[in-house]
Structure formats: C-alpha cells, structure tokens
Design a protein that fits this description.
This protein is of the alpha+beta class. It is built from 23 helices and twelve strands.
Length: 705
C-alpha cells in the first residue's frame, strides 16, 4: 500500500502540470490578455504547472520544489491582489496593501530559510531548527492566504461573487490542504509523504475551477470593505503572534540548553496570560480600534456602514424593548462608542426638558434643562460642546459661556452635547456619556456628529408631526361623536317643543299631565346620559385672572363631592392666588372625580390640601387608589384621548393642564401603581399673600426698593 503513494505523487503532479499548462495555453490562444486579472491568472497557471512538474521530477522535498512552491504562492497572491485592485471607483486604504506586503515578506523569508537550510544540512541541530522554522512560515502563510481568500470573496459585489466563487474555492482548498500538511509535519517532527503525494491531485482540481470561471463570466471587479480590512488586520496580527511565539520557543530551545523546557513553559505561560488579560478587555479593544482607525485608514469612519447602522437602529420595530427616543440616542451614541445618553426636547414654552434616558443612571435634571437663551445659542450656532474642555476652563478660572447650563458642566458623566437642528429650529439636544476610551474630538468626529444630529432631528420632527396629526384625527373623531350627540339633543328638544305646544291646549287634562311628566323624566334621563358620555371640554386660555380665595373655593368644590365620597380637607385659613375662579373650580372638580374613581373602595378618603410656599400657592388632590405607571404619566396622561378609565375620552387631564398653564401655573403629578396619586397645582400668590409669606429680610429689601 505504501508503494502506491510515490506513483500517485509522480503522476498526479504530472497531470496537474499538464492541465494547468494546457489551460494557460488555451487562454493565450483565446486572447485573454486584455484584462490584468486574466494576465495574472495565466502567470499563476504557468507557475503552478512549473511547480507541479518540479515536484514530479525532483521530488516534493527538493530545494527546487520548495522554491517553486514559494514562486507559485507569490503568483497566486499577485492574482488576488490585482483582482482586488480591479475596482478603480473606490480608493483603497493602505491597510490592504500592507497585508499583501506582509505575505510577500513571508514568502521572501522562506527563500532565505530554505537556502540556508541546504547549506547546513550536515549540522543536525541547525538544520532541524531551520527546517521547522520553514515549516512554521508555510503554516503562517497558509493561514494568511486563507484569510485573504475569505475577505476577497466577502468584499465582492453580489454580481462579482458569482464570477470569483470558483477560483476562490479552488485557492481555499489548495491552501487549506497546505495548512494541514505543514501542521502535521510540525507536530510529527517529520514530513507526511502520503499528504505530499496527494498535493498533485489537489492541484488538478484547481484547473477546471479556473477554466469554468473564465468561460462563464466576464470581467471581475470587487469593492473593498473597511470592516473586512479591519478584521483582516486583526487575524493577521493573531497569525503574527503565533509566528513570534513559536519562533521564540524554537530559539529558546536552541540556546537554553538543559533549561530549554522550563524556559519554553515560562514563555508560553507568560504570553498566554498577557493575551488572556488584554484580549477580553473592553478598554484594550477600544484602544486598539482607535489606533487602527487613526493610523491605517484615511478616515476614522466607514460612512456607508455608519449610515446603514444609524438607519437600522432608529428603524427598529415598535415591538422592540427599546423606545423610539432611546433608539435616537443610541443611534448617535454608537458613532462615538458612547455607552449612555440623555435626550432633551423642546416644550411649548420654548425651553428644553428631559425626554429620555438611555443607560443613564438617575440624576437630577432640572425641569427646565435648557432655558430659552441657551436654546437660541445652540440653534443659531449649531455648537457641539465638549464638556471636558469647559470643565478645564472652569478649573482654570477662565470665562465659560453662560449658554452652557451649569448642571451639565457639573455632571461628570456628560461628555458631549450635540444640537439637533431641523430647518433652522432646535428640536432637541443630545447629551452623550463617555466612551470606554476617553478621547478628544477631531474635525471628522464633529462633522459626523453634526450630520447625524440633523438626521436625528428630522426623525424627531417627523415623529412629533405624526403625533400632532394623530391628535388632530382624534379631535376630528371627537367632533364627529359630538355631532351625533347634538343630533340626540336636537331630537329631545323637538320632543319637548311639541309637548310645550300641546300643553297650552291640554294642560287641564289629568292624563296629559301624567304623560307630560313621564316625557319630561325621559328627556332628563336621556340628557343626563348624553352628558355623562361627553366630556365638558373647553379649549382656550383663562379669560378672567383675578385674586381667588382658595379656602372658599375649596370648601365649595368639596361640598359638591362629599355626598358621594369622603373628602378630607387640610389647609390654611387665608390663602389667595391669582387665577380664573371658574377654570380652577373646573380643574379641581375633575381632579377630585378622578381621585374618587381611582379609589379602591368607597371608604378611602380623598385628601384636598392647600398651602403657600415662596411666591406660589399649592393645591393638592391625593388618593390611595390604583395609581399610574411612570410610562403612562410620562407619555400618555396629558395627551388627549389617553385614559385608564373604561369608556373615558381622556380629555380631562389634557384640559386641566391647559387651563392651569393658561393661568400662569403648573400641574404636576406624583403616582405609584397600587399606592396612589397626588396631583399638585401651583399658581402665583396674590401680591398681599406674597408679602405675608416673605421673611423679614425679604420684606425689608422690598420696602427699601
């Protein structure tokens, strides 16, 4: 059985030489010399044929066979490089060329090692060292070549992949076989003659794959991908680590003498420990990525990949766990590898308030996060603020712009502030947290963030427009329902009108009077039912702002609700606020009714409390009911047509907040599910009450003024 392998090796290599040479001659006859890729393929076929012929005549372990194998690999590498460079529409970064140069350097090193090994054949120790060094170099070349084959196929366009699939498959098989051959040679400390004999058979299969590719497809072109180049560099770096480690072990084995084994074990343990510590580290990987992007690429960002990622992040389905506003933050934060962020959006008053936190721990963000002056500054300038530089200025007692809120400068987690401008209007600000590797921004970062901020602003404006349109449609639906109610009222009025006219003639008849009473009761019941289905919605600002005696107003409101539910009144005797009495009464009635409806049983009292503090008067309505979730309070409570009540229109809270704001006040809410809710109305105090609540120093300063 062992005698068959020399026969297979000799005639297999001869057949491989004949087929590769025949394909090269056929391509020359068919004038396949117009394209550089075809010229490189012909050269590779000729040299592969010469290598196979040498292996057949001289043997696979001869020095000439080793040299021809190196030349063959160089020609195949040249073919791949020309194929990669065939797309002139994209500028190639230097990293790709460096990878091919490194592979060529390995081939040249093989030449020198093989030549030196021949001259030292009589010296057993030196020859053994050089032989295994050559074997390791061939292993490393096979690994690097397989990586380049994979990357070349990955970066090709879908059309080009069909053309290069067959030759890339052939090269992958060829070098994968070589990798196994030299790995087994290294591990067994001797060449594998069986595998050496089979190399000719493997080379035979390379010929039809190249022939089919040339016959079936035209010009080959690929497009370089930045991400593939980055991964290629990483894999080649791993390969170099393997080379250095193995060569170092061999050198230590050669020079360390009787301590060789201990030295080898110590070296491998040390390098392995360093790799285990560094490679899993997020900081190390982030640092490595920054250095590669800085020194090996013309641009920091792969703009195509970044834009696809940006669109995919924001365009996730609503069913995803992360909300739309969090996706906006994440889409921009991922550009700089930031791990957290805040989204501040504009309110009706022109200021910005907190809209969303993304991976940001709870922190004190003022209700008015960015005031009107700062909004104008960011809107007009589009300034991207690097907060670390501002902190350094503050530490050096330098002047810092008043337009940057102090809470942002004091918040150590905040790194960058990115304005979101849409059609010259500031729709929000993004506050990005620090990345894993803290660094300063350059012009490319600023340009990328500025463009991404504008795109994010357009998404936010679109979302806000859609919300406004949805509200308008809901109002249209409400108006339609109101029209139906008006129709019912009209029928009832018509019925009462007929009864009124008949009463003038038949009022003396007992039967008519009985029927009239029955009709009146039916009309009243029908109107009450209609009113219960229609919210008493009123739009517009309060029309009559004047001093209001809170004690008197609260007593009157509580008296209306006390018969149906216990109301606990707590408050000062004298408190006067500025507002519209009719509107404030309507708001309190609505809040009390909501508190009563939310109560778990009829015996739980609702607390109605009022007091003065500073220059504000406060009225609180608190219950011990079902409460509301934070998400409902933030996104739905004050939106029209959002209600937790069965059959509710969701108009009351929206109307109440609008009425309070029209009086110059605020309506805030504190709620916890299954605990209860507290609604807080704050209104300006009347001038005389403001004076009474001042301390002595404030009164003295006012009198002097």
């Amino acid at each position: 059985m062992a005698d068959i392998f020399p026969f297979i090796g000799t005639f297999g290599h001869l057949l491989a030489a004949a087929l590769n040479g025949a394909l090269a001659i056929w391509m020359l006859q068919k004038a396949y010399l117009r394209q550089p890729t075809h010229k490189a393929m012909i050269l590779a076929l000729v040299l592969t044929s010469a290598w196979a012929l040498t292996c057949s005549w001289e043997g696979p372990l001869s020095l000439l066979a080793y040299f021809m194998e190196t030349v063959r690999n160089g020609a195949l590498l040249l073919f791949m490089y020309i194929l990669l460079r065939s797309d002139e529409s994209h500028e190639q970064p230097p990293t790709v060329s460096i990878l091919y140069l490194v592979m060529c350097a390995i081939l040249l090193l093989q030449f020198f090692v093989d030549a030196i090994a021949v001259n030292m054949a009589s010296l057993a120790a030196q020859y053994s060292f050089l032989f295994f060094t050559s074997t390791i170099l061939r292993m490393i070349f096979a690994v690097g070549a397989l990586v380049l084959v994979h990357n070349l196929y990955s970066v090709a366009s879908p059309q080009a992949r069909m053309a290069i699939r067959l030759p890339m498959s052939g090269l992958a098989v060829l070098w994968f076989f070589d990798l196994n051959l030299y790995t087994i040679t290294y591990l067994s400390n001797a060449p594998s003659y069986e595998l050496l004999a089979m190399r000719g058979i493997i080379a035979i299969f390379l010929t039809p794959l190249f022939a089919l590719a040339v016959r079936s497809h035209g010009e080959l072109k690929v497009q370089l991908s930045r991400s593939i180049a980055f991964h290629s560099f990483s894999l080649v770096a791993i390969g170099f680590y393997l080379v250095v480690m193995v060569m170092a072990v061999q050198i230590l084995s050669f020079f360390a003498g009787e301590y060789a084994q201990l030295t080898q074990v110590s070296f491998i343990f040390g390098t392995s420990l360093a790799a285990l510590v560094l490679l899993p580290s997020n900081s190390f990987r982030a640092w490595f990525k920054v250095k590669i992007a800085k020194h090996f690429f013309q641009h920091r960002y792969d703009y195509r990949a970044e834009w696809i990622r940006f669109a995919d992040t924001i365009g996730q389905d609503e069913g995803e766990d992360i909300s739309f506003h969090s996706r906006v933050v994440k889409a921009v934060a991922d550009i700089t590898d930031s791990k957290s962020g805040l989204l501040l959006t504009s309110e009706s008053g022109g200021y910005l308030s907190l809209q969303e936190r993304w991976n940001w721990p709870a922190a004190d963000v003022p209700a008015i996060a960015i005031d009107n002056d700062a909004v104008t500054f960011f809107q007009d300038s589009g300034y991207i603020a690097e907060l670390d530089s501002l902190r350094e200025a503050v530490a050096s007692d330098k002047q810092v712009s008043d337009n940057i809120p102090s809470w942002l400068v004091e918040e150590s987690r905040a790194w960058i502030v990115v304005p979101l401008v849409h059609y010259a209007q500031l729709v929000g600000l993004l506050v990005l947290g620090r990345p894993t590797i803290n660094r300063s921004l350059d012009w490319e970062d600023l340009d990328m963030l500025r463009v991404a901020g504008r795109q994010a602003a357009s998404y936010l404006a679109e979302e806000r427009g859609q919300s406004a349109l949805a509200e308008a449609q809901q109002f249209e639906d409400f108006n339609r329902r109101f029209a139906f109610v008006m129709h019912d009222i009209k029928n009832t009025v018509s019925q009462l009108s007929v009864m009124s006219r008949n009463a003038q003639k038949h009022i003396e008849k007992p039967a008519f009077r009985a029927d009239m009473l029955e009709t009146l009761q039916g009309a009243v019941d029908k109107l009450n039912e209609t009113l219960s289905r229609l919210s008493n919605y009123r739009q517009g600002a309060a029309s009559n702002v004047a001093p209001i005696d809170v004690s008197k107003l609260v007593t009157n409101v509580a008296a209306q609700k006390t018969p149906s539910h216990p109301i606990n009144i707590i408050g000062a005797d004298n408190l006067t606020v500025m507002g519209d009495a009719v509107s404030l009464e309507q708001v309190l009635l609505h809040l009390l009714q909501n508190a009563i409806d939310a109560s778990k049983n009829d015996t739980d009292s609702v607390i109605l409390q009022w007091y003065g503090k500073g220059d504000k008067g406060y009225l609180e309505v608190a219950d011990q009911g079902t409460g509301m979730s934070a998400e409902f309070v933030r996104n739905k409570l004050f939106k029209p047509f959002s209600s937790q009540k069965d059959g509710g229109f969701g108009i009351g809270a929206f109307e109440a907040k609008a009425l309070v704001m029209a009086m110059g006040g605020m309506l805030e809410v504190e709620s916890r599910e299954d605990v209860g809710t507290r609604m807080i109305i704050s209104l300006p105090l009347a001038p005389e009450d403001q004076y009474q609540l001042m301390n002595d120093d404030q009164k003295e300063a006012l009198e002097k003024a």
